[in-house]
TrEMBL record:
Key word Hydrolase present: yes
Transmembrane segments: none
Coiled coil region boundaries: none
GO molecular function (one): hydrolase activity
Protein name as catalogued: SGNH/GDSL hydrolase family protein
Position of the signal peptide: 1-27
InterPro entries: SGNH_hydro_sf, TAT_signal
PROSITE patterns the record matches: TAT
Highest taxon of the lineage: Bacteria
Keyword annotations from UniProtKB, A to Z: Hydrolase, Signal
Length: 284
């Protein structure tokens, strides 16, 4: 990863800290959590992510793993992530890598994140028959069929639009699509739009498109509940991985977790329990 990319990690952290401070007054104090028994064996969940920079900026899969591991009764989440800048689900299906991974053993969940804004076409009669829209619908169906064959639930990670009207179209499209492919919507888009109205767009989407660290934490909270079945508790969470920028050197044909250029420089960030309480409150 380039030095310029690395310099952007602390800036992202600073943006997140400001956002937490702005939001913390709205969150209740976190109750102290009981430690897990020393002999407790975490349950393992295998999760496949397919998406683009809205997933890999700040490394949402790694954030989810860290959140789950920090719980009083921890869950072990193993992930494989196939992403590319600006990529669509149709492109990820067509290159065959994520689909092949789905055929390798049991999976508990598949998280599908379509290119930001694209799903809105599915509730617009003038756009529904356009090639990109039809390709997206087909890719969702193909991934859902392959996921079910692998024993996995399908989660649609909804994205965000530029305003309330567009967000409404995205949300309606996600619900309709989920009903057709028997999936569950993780309402990240609507949730982060609400957070942006409270904290400001810059604190939630620093570059106008990609999530802040706080926004990524909120999505991780929502995914934890959808995958593990319980809402996470407010505990200290250690982020010991690179908070990837949008221009990270991603290779779409290899799981993100196995790409050495994405490992970062070893710095750690500890998200304290009171800050996690703010993220958990925002995720509701």
């Amino acid at each position: 990863m380039s030095p310029s990319s690395r310099r952007r990690f602390p800036r992202a952290i600073a943006t997140w800290v400001l956002a937490v401070c702005a939001f913390a007054s709205h969150a209740q104090d976190a109750a102290p959590a009981n430690a897990a028994p020393a002999n407790a064996k975490p349950k393992t969940y295998r999760v496949l992510f397919v998406g683009n920079s809205l997933t890999y900026v700040n490394d949402l899969p790694a954030t989810l793993r860290a959140l789950a591991a920090a719980q009083p009764t921890p869950a072990k989440i193993e992930t494989q992530t196939f992403v590319a800048p600006g990529g669509s689900l149709a492109e990820r299906w067509d290159d065959g890598k994520a689909a092949a991974a789905l055929g390798e053993g049991h999976w508990d969940a598949v998280v599908l994140q379509e290119r930001g804004g694209l799903l809105a076409c599915m509730v617009d009669p003038a756009q529904r028959t356009q090639p990109d829209c039809r390709a997206s619908d087909r890719a969702h169906r193909d991934f859902a069929d392959r996921a079910k064959a692998a024993g996995a639930r399908v989660l649609l990670l909804s994205t965000w639009g530029p305003d309330t009207q567009y967000q409404s179209k995205l949300d309606r499209a996600a619900k309709q699509l989920a009903s057709r492919i028997n999936a569950r919507v993780v309402p990240a888009g609507a949730t982060l739009r609400t957070l942006a109205q409270r904290n400001g767009d810059k604190a939630t989407f620093p570059d106008g498109i990609h999530p802040s660290v706080l926004a990524t934490l909120v999505m991780a909270v929502q995914l934890h509940e959808a995958i593990v079945g319980t809402a996470p508790q407010a505990t200290d969470v250690t982020l010991d991985f690179a908070l990837l920028p949008a221009n990270a050197a991603i290779q779409p044909d290899t799981p993100m977790e196995s790409q050495p250029q994405l490992k970062g420089d070893g710095r750690k960030v500890v998200v304290k329990a009171d800050a996690m309480a703010a993220a958990i409150e925002a995720a509701k």
